[in-house]
Amino acid sequence: MTGRLLFAHPDEPAEPHDRVLFTMGADRQFRYRDQRKLQGLWLADDDAEMDREEFEAALSARRSSIKTVLTNQSVVAGLGNLPADEILWRAKVRPSTHSNDLTEADRRRLYTRMRRTLPAWGVVRRCGARGVSSTSSRG
């Protein structure tokens, strides 16, 4: 996801590129700002709860390239192009490999690398430190 997540006061006028606004009480608003328009917005399961078996089943059930499967928001919500490339590189899996052709070892490595790589790609981590994607294009 490109763009920025911001907090603002609800009385502040929305900027032209504010795409989503959530008002949280009388004095706080959460805004998503991006030059690109959104196709839609959905609530998704927390993929932090996805275990290895669920992940492997999702990969085995699809016939597309692994890169296409990883960036499919119905498989792993919020996983974009750059983090997917990083995960594939760290797992030593070619992006063009069909997901249903992956070996068990490939799927296990992908899951492990995804778990280790994704926290670095957060815009802001829970502790408040800036994540890699907010300061560079490589994790």
Could you characterize the architecture of this molecule?
This protein has 139 residues and is α+β, with helices and mostly antiparallel strands. It has 2 domains: 1-37, no CATH class; 47-121, Helicase, Ruva Protein, domain 3, CATH 1.10.8.50. It contains 4 helices and 3 strands, in the order E-E-E-H-H-H-H. It has helices at residues 52-60, 66-70, 81-91, 104-117, and strands at residues 4-8, 18-23, 29-33. Strands 1-3-2 form a 3-stranded antiparallel sheet, with no helix packed on it. Strand 2 and strand 3 (29-33) form a beta hairpin. Helix 1 crosses helix 4 (104-117) and helix 3 (81-91) packs across helix 4. It is elongated and about 55 Å long. The two termini are 15 Å apart. 16% of the residues are buried. GO terms for molecular function: 8-oxo-7,8-dihydroguanine DNA N-glycosylase activity; damaged DNA binding; DNA-(apurinic or apyrimidinic site) endonuclease activity; lyase activity; zinc ion binding. Residues 1-39 form the Formamidopyrimidine-DNA glycosylase catalytic domain.
